[in-house]
Amino acid sequence: MKGTLDHTMIRVADIDASIDWYETHLDYELKDRHDGDGFTIVYMGPEDMGGDEAMLELTSNEGQDEIGIGDAWGHIAVRVRDLEDAYDELMASGVGDYRDPESCGGRYAFVKDPDGHEIEIVQRDHGSRWSLDHTMIRVEDADEALGYWVRKFDYVETRRWEADTFANYFVEPEDAPEEAMSVELTYNYDGRTYTEADGWGHLCVQLDDLHDDWEQLMIREAPDYRDPESCDNMYAFTKDQDGHEIELIVRDSDAGSLFPF
Hints:
With 261 residues, the chain is α/β, with parallel strands linked by helices. The protein is built from 4 helices and 14 strands. It has helices spanning 15-26, 83-92, 142-153, 210-219; strands at 5-11, 28-35, 39-46, 55-61, 73-80, 108-112, 118-123, 132-139, 155-162, 166-173, 182-188, 200-206, 236-239, 245-249. The protein has a 7-stranded mixed beta sheet with strand order 2-3-4-1-12-14-13, with helices on one face. It has a 7-stranded mixed beta sheet with strand order 6-7-5-8-11-10-9. It is globular and about 50 Å long. The mean pLDDT is 96.
């Protein structure tokens, strides 16, 4: 299966305010929008983003005025060429000062969007500016988490950071382009558990064939959460060992809309 990451979905309370925030501060543009019955979904990303880069999906549900963040998901990370300049630019444009580069040892920084989603800023020499570098999720068992992505999706560990109290593992397809988004698995050694909340939705993996790859995932004992038939054969969902939702789609390059429905 192809298996590259297509997007990360987060939920927001005010879709128009969130669109404005990402357009204003990260220079994102609206790639597609769908206004459904009681909900709105948009895809966003840098104007000049490459075809191998992942998008950000914002979902807003009618009547949902407050968003819970929880701690099962950590953050999305965006790329810049100069960390200090990018952070100063965000501060000058009115973004709240959350964790500046100095407080992070000069290696990265963090801000928050209007709903409290954490956004890490990392310095990279590849990818379009502000493009998604990785999405971090917290896992309760590192061995199980690494085994899940290796066995289910043919991912490989590309790098890791091991400290005294925690470890970070980055996984992606073995032949993934440099600009593709990775999954960061964060494992804390103290045995803590995590709480899912409605502020985070899912990771999305692109497949070559929805039905064939779904059958392969079932053979590999991935959770049968929402199969293609239950989703009108347009997409499907499974979950990882900790309950993080993973959407599965096939992109039609000739389609006029990014939405599978």
